[in-house]
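step=encode ok
step=design start
structure_in=
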């Protein structure tokens, strides 16, 4: 008789679920740090005291709006989830997790594909439940609408303040901070730095040189940690608030892009409040500096004293890329080579892919071409600067000259220095070399095309070619 017996598998302990929590406060006040600390403590205790849960940390962002996912701790939590360190995320409510419906759904869907569950305590919703996403979509839409309504109310209040000449917070180097710029005072030590910057710019001095001097003297302590100290100086030089006039409404937040302020280019009114602040710089000085800024901008690289410039610097333009050609020097790699200079489109020099179609232009050939267009015997820096505003280069051979008197002229030209280097003396030496090769071939019964060149004939040709090259370079002023 066959006997059957059921064998029961030994009980297996379920793997502990790694659980994390996310908390957020959107505005920092005297009370909110305590609120955030309480949330962190509560979730830490809850996770560590729940059987079957393994503590994976509490991620908390402070003072960051939920309308964006660009939150350091939020992104750190997502990175941990992607690497398999989290099975479950706890959060207080949908609005704490995200206030943008699209961001919320994209995030929970990604987490769901990773096998990570999100539970919202206030709404009592789990992303793993059957109707979880539908309910989340509805509630998240309400949260987003509430956020947008709050934003509209804040914008209305700010614009009403602008109409009354009140700023929406004021913080500017040289002045004390103020919530609405109605009680601003000058900070004299900082104001002296501002006056020094305006004065030295007109000497003239570059912004980078002034920033370096301020860092060396220790007059602006935070400037040493600035990644672009020269830009900090430029910001001061361009800010009209130092004249005492306050321009309100320069920035605005587009609809649907909460927290992403952009420069107001006419979409909303702006308000100029004259004499709103105690002036550090008078209007005449400020106006003179703006003229100088524009002048240096027009000069381009020639306004930078640290760059070795020539008359053509910033005046040879790539018509396709919109940038200037730069002068490039190629140093010799062997004793037989020479130092050459040529002009190349900035985008091409940087190695970027561009369809401009331009090529490198020999400095020597370009100068000769410009001289012929201007009707002068040889290139002259002063004549070029006086008569030429700039030259547009299109493709390999089209040049449009823009003159300082407002007229233009177009020319087709392609440099060919190799052809011009084929002088009569060099041609004669080459003919003798070919003749010597054929005579050698006949004497030894060889094919003239494959016969070696006699060393004496080759040496003679090379000597002539070298002498002719040196003569031409001397005539062109090359080294």
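sequence_out=
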């Amino acid at each position: 008789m066959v006997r059957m017996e059921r064998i029961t598998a030994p009980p297996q302990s379920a793997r502990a679920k790694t659980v994390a929590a996310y908390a957020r406060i959107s505005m920092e006040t005297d009370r909110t740090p305590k609120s955030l600390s309480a949330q962190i403590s509560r979730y830490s205790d809850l996770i560590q005291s729940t059987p079957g849960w393994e503590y994976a940390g509490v991620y908390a962002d402070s003072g960051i709006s939920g309308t964006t996912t660009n939150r350091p701790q939020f992104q750190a939590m997502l990175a941990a989830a992607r690497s398999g360190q989290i099975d479950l995320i706890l959060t207080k409510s949908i609005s704490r997790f995200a206030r943008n419906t699209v961001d919320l759904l994209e995030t929970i869907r990604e987490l769901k594909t990773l096998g990570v569950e999100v539970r919202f305590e206030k709404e009592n919703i789990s992303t793993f439940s059957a109707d979880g996403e539908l309910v989340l979509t509805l509630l998240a839409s309400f949260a987003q609408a509430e956020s947008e309504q709050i934003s509209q109310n804040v914008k209305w209040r700010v614009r009403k303040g602008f109409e009354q000449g009140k700023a929406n917070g004021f913080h500017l180097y040289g002045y004390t901070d103020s919530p609405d710029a109605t009680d601003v005072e000058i900070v004299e030590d900082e104001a002296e730095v501002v006056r020094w910057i305006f004065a030295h710019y007109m000497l003239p001095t570059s912004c980078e040189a002034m920033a370096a001097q301020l860092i060396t003297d220790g007059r602006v302590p935070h400037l040493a940690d600035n990644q672009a100290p020269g830009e900090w100086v430029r910001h001061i030089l361009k800010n009209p608030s130092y004249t005492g006039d306050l321009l309100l409404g320069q920035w605005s937040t587009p609809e649907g892009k909460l927290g992403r302020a952009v420069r107001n280019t006419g979409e909303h009114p702006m308000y100029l409040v004259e004499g709103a602040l105690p002036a550090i710089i008078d209007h005449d000085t400020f106006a003179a500096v703006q003229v100088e800024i524009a002048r240096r901008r027009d000069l381009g690289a020639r306004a930078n004293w640290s760059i070795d410039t020539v008359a053509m610097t910033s005046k040879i333009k790539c018509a396709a890329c919109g940038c200037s050609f730069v002068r490039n020097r190629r140093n010799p790699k062997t004793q037989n080579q020479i130092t050459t200079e040529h002009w190349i489109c900035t985008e091409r020099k940087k190695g970027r892919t561009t369809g401009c179609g331009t090529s490198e232009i020999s400095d020597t050939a370009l100068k000769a071409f410009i001289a012929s267009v201007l009707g002068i015997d040889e290139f002259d820096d002063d004549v070029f600067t006086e008569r030429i505003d700039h030259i547009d280069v299109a493709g390999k051979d089209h040049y449009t000259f823009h003159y300082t008197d407002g007229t233009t002229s177009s020319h087709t030209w392609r440099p060919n220095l190799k052809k011009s280097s084929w002088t009569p003396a060099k041609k004669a030496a080459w003919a003798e070399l070919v003749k010597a090769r054929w005579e050698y071939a006949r004497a030894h019964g060889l094919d003239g095309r494959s016969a070696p060149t006699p060393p004496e004939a080759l040496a003679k040709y090379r000597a002539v070619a070298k002498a002719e090259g040196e003569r031409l370079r001397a005539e062109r002023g090359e080294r």
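step=design ok
step=annotate ok -> Residues 18 and 54 are 5 Å apart (CA to CA).
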